[in-house]
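pinned: reference chain
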Amino acid sequence: MTVGCGCTRRSLLKGGALALVGLGSVPRFLVRAAAAEPVGARPRVLIAIFQRGAVDGLSMIVPHAEPAYYAARRSIAIARPVASNSDTAIDLDGRFGLHPALAALKPLWDERRLAVVHACGSPATTRSHFDAQDYMESGTPEVKNTPDGWLSRGLKAAGSSPVSPLRAVAMGPRLPRILRGEAGAVAMSSVAEFDVKSPMAPGTGAVDARRGFESMYEQGLHDLLHGTGRETFEALKVLKVADPGRNLPANGARYPAGRFGQHLLQIAQLIKADIGLQVAFADVGGWDTHAGQGNERGQLASRFKEFADAVAALDRDLADRMSDVVVLTMSEFGRTVAENGNRGTDHGRATAMLVLGGPVCGRRVLGRWPGLDRAQLDEGRDLAVTTDFRDLFGEIAHRHLGVPATGSVFPGFAFDPTRAPGVLGRSPST
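pinned: its structure tokens
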């Protein structure tokens, strides 16, 4: 963007910052930001997707070999697989199947790049969305005063040099709990609109993004004093140079038009821009299906289709770059095994979590399946948790992000490779 007199905002910022360094009045981050260029390395990338609202793992990954599943869900069960019928569960291994609306993910399964961890969840027994999400993002079940998120701790423990100001990015208007901490991260509603917040233009009530170096510097310093300016300002400079928006979807990828699809599109743009991204976070809601959940069709099926189409588009768009990418889904808890009186499901315990990407040892449903007979249920109503989410997340942090096995990613919980589900394979030591 041109500021005036034929110079760019980048050149104005760089020249102005360097000219003022001798006065000792410019923060060091501003000088570094003025000269920032895109980082050329291709680090391993983790894309974490939070399905907020408690996704029904029994509809997402259907236990179609379980008679108790069909007995408990007279109107909302997903029909057993029939090869010639696209409105039934898509068989995976003779025991479990994909919801038919998730058909876009089946090729990843067939190519051994999609794994499922079923009966996964938290040891915390809360049925509060707020508390359960907090525990999962902080990585400390039943502890409410943890100051940071497990992904931030993981990035700090993994270390990296040089560290990109866009090492960790959350798609959304605010930084999620999972990325808050010392490692540093930025949040953006969209790549195109990401900017240092500027003062309102006089008399307009609108943000003035063109007031030049002075307003940018003043606001950057103001944000720095509140602990957000460094990451935001440096990230802004890198984005202006890298211009991720020029990386249009490739290989025929078509992202859904909704918020979630567009967020995954922009994550793909950031990855292709080679700006040093290591962790990206996106969330998608609409999973709290207390009434009118539907079965092969209905509100849950619509959410599944949008979700699967977006993830499949990301995979197609990135193509061979998926060899460096792992996508992890999570949800705060699952739903009750039995349907309720409103043809929906209520808050439960365990759910299914998906892991996909080039490094994944896929085409497997992992974790110990506890069964759905009444005596096997948690409190007689819920799918029991047999895989602690920290064992799954810890495996990915250790084997994909490079966090030492001794790293304190989950306070009070020691990562043990022998408990890992094995989504990334077994190391020689295990």
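why pinned: The two ends are 54 Å apart (CA to CA). Residues 1-40, 196-227 have pLDDT under 50 and may be disordered.
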